[in-house]
Every structure is written in structure tokens, then in C-alpha cells.
Amino acid sequence: MKLLKKRILQDGKCYEGGILKVDSFINHQLDPTLMKSIGIEFVRRFATTNVNKIMTIEASGIAPAIMTGYLMDLPVVFAKKKLPNTMRNYLSTTVHSFTKDRDYEVVISSEFIGPEDNILFIDDFLAYGNAALGILNLIEQAGANLVGMGFIIEKEFQNGRLLLESKGIKVESLAIIESLSNRIIKIKE
Ligand code: 5GP
Predict the structure, then answer these.
(1) What CATH number does the domain containing 80 carry?
(2) Mean pLDDT score, 105-128
(3) Would you tell me how many other CB atoms lie within 10 Å of the CB of residue 183?
(4) Which residue's alpha carbon is nearest to atom 16 within ligand 1?
(5) Which of 20, 94, 99 is the best mutation target for the ligand 1 pocket, counting ligand atoms within 8 Å of the beta carbon and taking the most?
(6) What number does the ligand 1 atom closest to the CA of 57 have?
(7) pLDDT-derived band of residue 26, with 50, 70 and 90 as boundaries?
(8) How far does the chain reach from its first CA to its final CA, in angstroms?
(9) What is the pLDDT of residues 76-111, one digit of tens each?
(10) What is the 59 CA–ligand 1 centroid distance (Å)?
(11) Ligand 1 binding site (Cβ under 6 Å of any ligand atom)
């Protein structure tokens, strides 16, 4: 996606340990016009699937997920990182966070996912694939079906795609970062 790649090169910043900061347009301050284009691109890439629900994980996945859900006219549900006091029946799993280097629980109410669901998972980043595997685990516990996973940015050198594709998952990323070595952003053409 040309517009996105251009923006990453213009406004993205590299941090120690292979972290790309895009918080001026994707995951802190948001550019709704860019997010709309991202949604349109996800719709195009998953148009042939039988998706009936979009799923993401809070907080950074919510913006691209809701754009995609709005354009497809489908419900969007996000996995929560804190169990609400009022949630009685839920599914949970543990995810290892690469950026924070710790494990955390994610939960989803059993009310919003079930065997009738064909899920498209949308998130901001694909790194090692841990968040995605956590979501896959929730989907499996619910007896739902996963139709694919879409990421705004994939860091190819952290190999999350290999892990997901080895499980037969259709993976689509709108910008693929080949390297962040020496604080230089290299994006796949
Ligand atoms: P994974 O679970 O694939 O290792 O990492 C994906 C999650 O970690 C994403 O949901 C994202 O929030 C966060 N993440 C991974 N790499 C980066 C990065 O380079 N920059 C930012 N801002 N978040 C990242």
C-alpha cells in the first residue's frame, strides 16, 4: 500500500530492539483518512472470504478493525487486556508482549464469539506472532472459524508470518518492513 509505505518512511521512527514507532499516525495520534484507506485495502484483500465478524485486541487494533468492520458492515469485537468485574462467562488466554517483555491475560466474553462466527483478525503490527496466536487460541476455544489475519505493518525479520502460515492461516500485511538495522527503515517494494 503505497500511501502507507510513504507515511512510514516519512514519520516512522526506529527504536532499540527492532521497535518501530508510528504513534503520530497509527497508534497514539490517529490519521483517520489514512485509516480509512487501510480499511479499504483490508476489505479488498479479504473480499473473497466468508467473514461475518471482525476481531482485534485492544487498544491499537481497534481503529483499523472498526474501519474495516464499518466498510464491510460487520460487527467488531476486541479482546480485552483486563477482565471487567461484570463479565461472567468468558474465554481467556495468555499472550507474551514483545514491546513490554511480559505476559498478560486477554479475555473475550463468550457472548460475542461462537461456532457460527467466521472471524477476520485485524491488528496494527505483526512481529513474532504472539498476539495473533493468543487470538487463534480464543477462536479455537469458542469453536469459531478463522478466515484470515490482516496487519497494518509486518516486521518480516521477526518471522511471525512463518509461524502463522505454518498453521494454515491466510496472512495479509499492508506494509512489510524488511529491516530496522542501524535505525534505517527498509520497506519491501
Ligand atoms: P507480536 O505478538 O506479533 O510479537 O507483536 C504484536 C503486538 O505487539 C502488536 O499488537 C503491537 O501492539 C505490538 N508491537 C510489536 N512490534 C511493535 C513495534 O515495532 N511497534 C509498535 N508500536 N508496536 C509493536
Answers:
(1) 3.40.50.2020
(2) 98
(3) 9
(4) 127
(5) 99
(6) 10
(7) very high
(8) 9
(9) 999 999 999 999 999 999 999 987 889 999 999 999
(10) 11
(11) 19-21, 27, 60, 98-99, 123-132, 155, 160
CA distance 118 to 148: 9
Among 144, 146, 135, CA closest to 93? 135
Whether this prediction's pTM lies above 0.85 is answered by: yes
Q: From ligand 1's centre to the CA of 125, what distance in Å?
A: 5
What does pLDDT average to over the chain? 97
The angle subtended at Cα 154 by Cα 79 and Cα 113, nearest 5°, is 20
Nearest-CA residue for ligand 1 atom 4 is 128
Note down the domain range covering 130: 2-187
pLDDT at 161: 98
Vertex 151: Cα angle to 137 and 119 (nearest 5): 45
The count of domains in the chain is 1
